[in-house]
Hints:
The chain is mainly alpha-helical. It has 23 helices and 2 strands. It has a two-stranded antiparallel ribbon with strand order 1-2. It comes from Aspergillus lucknowensis.
Amino acid sequence: xxxxxxxHLIKHFTPRLAAAVGLISLSTLNYGFDNQGIATSQAMxxxxxxxxxxxxxxxxxxxxxYWTSLLxxxxxxxxAAGLYLGSLISARYGRxxxxxxxxxxxxxxxxxxxxxxxIEQVLAGRILNYAYxxxxxATCPPFQAEIIPAPVRGFAVGTYQASLLVGGILINSVCxxxxxxxxxxxxxxxxxxxxxxxxxxxxxxxFIPESPRWLLLQDRxxxxxxxxxxLRGFGPESPEPxxxxxxxxxxxxxxxxxxxxxxLFRGSNRRRTLIAMGMNFFIQATGSPFTxxxxxxxxxxxxxxxxxxxxLMSSCIxxxxxxxxxxxxxxxxxxxxxxxGSVLQIxxxxxxxxxxxxxxxxxxxxQVIVAATALSSASLCFSWDPLNYIVxxxxxxxxxxxxxxxxxxxxxxxxxxxxxxxxxxLLNAPYxxxxxxxxxxxxxxxCCSLVFAYFCVPEMKGRSLEEINTMxxxxxALRDFGKxxxxxxFTQVSTYNYCA
Length: 500
């Protein structure tokens, strides 16, 4: 029991705070359901028969390459729309209203997907459902970052990615169990899970406190203080809620911007915005769309392992890797984990590409390709996947957090769209037909991600959002963030109009 009390996570989480972070993370399960559920369903015989075309030469059903490309790329139209809409709702009406709204939307889009009988309906359903995913990305990581104490912020925000991966495990387990069914129930049963999480979130969201930082931006200091009291368990050596509120107030007063889009590229904010954009580029450009959207189909084409078993195995490995990363990030730091992940990705991706140059690979060589594919995905889940959301929400000034999230996520969406759309053409004949040699492309970009992490990403572990803001405004060199000391001077402020 004493050991638990000394745990760096346990001593910073109150029951109310844990419930809030848990509910916010739960909503991300639906992202994992969609991301993995659709990808795995595309490998099912009944799904191909319902939405594919018959090939007389192979005497089998298959979804054409152009439809595979469209299903896994045009959904980002909905993602972009949902991101912008969710960010506006979140900034104007609060994080809780945004989460309630997106949950209702998710149940509507799930109905379209499950009732589909034509591939055009599936495409429409994916676009609609990804609007929910965009709203979620605009709301959940900032919400978590704003309510959590600095010493465990990395773990809390990282649960966004961990929950996504747990959702992948759950739906891949269901898909494995239904994959042998010959009817459309094979893919409709797992997609029925799309209703579960939004129903829970919509019902429970009003029982958790609103973000105190958002309340201050709405000139509601009394409500912000109430929220802090509900979220924090203050011991004898911890600051009082009034003291933390005063720090938040003073930081807002001294921010060197008015919260406009132009401010994103002015002064110290320019560095923050460019770093956030770079993080969101590399998370997608190093192979995430390849493994997430096409991993099951790719492994199925190798004829070496049951693709549904591979999906479940890969989901479990990815989740374990992510949990390790978010557990140690507040102790080890952001930069070492990012750089380690990049190095591992370089190894596995070039291994996959190198073995792929063999014209007639043996079974052992094919299994090396499968293993390298899984390990590449695990390396990404250990590093860039969870750390992207942590770093992107830590960087911005309070008035610019929502706008920075929008701009950075647009880069994420654009990069994801490009690679999701082109990957089937890179993989398959009669197009580029690179197959596993795509590892050379993604591995080369992973080399660039290593350079970016080393030179451009500051170390922000253990820093409050207000300390990070001060260091950027004072022009501290990015490489010195981890060792610089900063003193926050604050005064109690009771009335101030924070709305720009």
